[in-house]
Amino acid sequence: MPPAVPYLDQPPTPLCFFRDWVCPNRPCIIRNALQHWPALQKWSFPYLRATVGSTEVSVAVTPDGYADVVRGDRFVMPAERHLPLSHVLDVLEGQAQHPGVLYVQKQCSNLATELSQLLSDLEPHVPWASEALGKIPDAVNFWLGEAAAVTSLHKDHYENLYCVVSGEKHFLLHPPSDRPFIPYEMYTPASYQLTEEGTFKVVDEEAMEKVPWIPLDPLAPDLARYPSYSQAQALRCTVQAGELLYLPALWFHHVQQSHGCIAVNFWYDMEYDLKYSYFQLLDSLTKAAGLN
């Protein structure tokens, strides 16, 4: 574990990226990798309003900014609304109101499916990473939200290239080897529903099976309840506009952002590779030892 996430001043070659970062499963922040994207100069709120303002996008809406989070004995997912992007921008600028906290975070290649007019402002993939990983991205996602919008601690089985276009993102990271110290429990899935009065209620998703999720908030961990977490070693980093974070598959991450931050990320699904097998082994040993 390095004491901090390393910086690279320029994009690596595909060989160096694979050898030095992908194979050892180490994160890094890469500068000067996005400078040729028109999006870095174009993607202001006025530009988005003029270009895609009338386009309806999927928006996660929560009462407190936390989507996909444990609340009591429930794993609660956000309410989803389809709103014109111009309305989201108006809320972010204080020119309109909407109940709860808004976050454009649909993670199914929403840049291509909902905001395709913006695709010409950036590359469809990151060439040196795609060559190193042996494939093109499985999803390209667009992110825009309020400062109150927070991503709870979780992991993904994707190689993740997270590119900040404007503003900044704040990441708290744990390597997969911290799995024995990170608690998981099973929860009944539920979703927020927004009522006509503008209040939120939690409704169970009866057709879904229980969901394993992390109940711990790494910003204010309950060490009396989860004492093992004190042995975990978090890395914290801030990704600024124009920088790219390589977040390796299966790293735990908790994410905050500046107000109105705009980002794009590329997901490469490596399916059942060696990293996945390693994590499954570590997870099985953790459960067998009764750690959580």
From TrEMBL:
Subcellular localization: Cytoplasm; Nucleus
Main localisation = cytoplasm
Q: Which GO terms describe its cellular component?
A: cytoplasm; nucleus
Cofactor(s) recorded in Swiss-Prot or TrEMBL:
Fe(2+)
* Coiled-coil regions listed: none
- The enzyme's first-digit EC class, named in words, is oxidoreductase
- Entry-linked Pfam families: Cupin_8
JmjC domain location = 104-283
Record keywords: Cytoplasm, Disulfide bond, Hydrolase, Iron, Metal-binding, Nucleus, Oxidoreductase
What EC identifiers does the entry list? 1.14.11.63
**GO MF terms held by the record:** hydrolase activity; metal ion binding; peptidyl-lysine 3-dioxygenase activity
PANTHER family, from UniProt?
BIFUNCTIONAL PEPTIDASE AND (3S)-LYSYL HYDROXYLASE JMJD7, HYPOXIA-INDUCIBLE FACTOR 1 ALPHA INHIBITOR-RELATED
Job of this protein: Bifunctional enzyme that acts both as an endopeptidase and 2-oxoglutarate-dependent monooxygenase. Endopeptidase that cleaves histones N-terminal tails at the carboxyl side of methylated arginine or lysine residues, to generate 'tailless nucleosomes', which may trigger transcription elongation. Preferentially recognizes and cleaves monomethylated and dimethylated arginine residues of histones H2, H3 and H4. After initial cleavage, continues to digest histones tails via its aminopeptidase activity. Additionally, may play a role in protein biosynthesis by modifying the translation machinery.
Q: How does it assemble?
A: Homodimer; disulfide-linked. Interacts with DRG1 and DRG2.
Query: Could you tell me what this protein is called?
Result: Bifunctional peptidase and (3S)-lysyl hydroxylase JMJD7
Biological source species: Heterocephalus glaber (Naked mole rat)
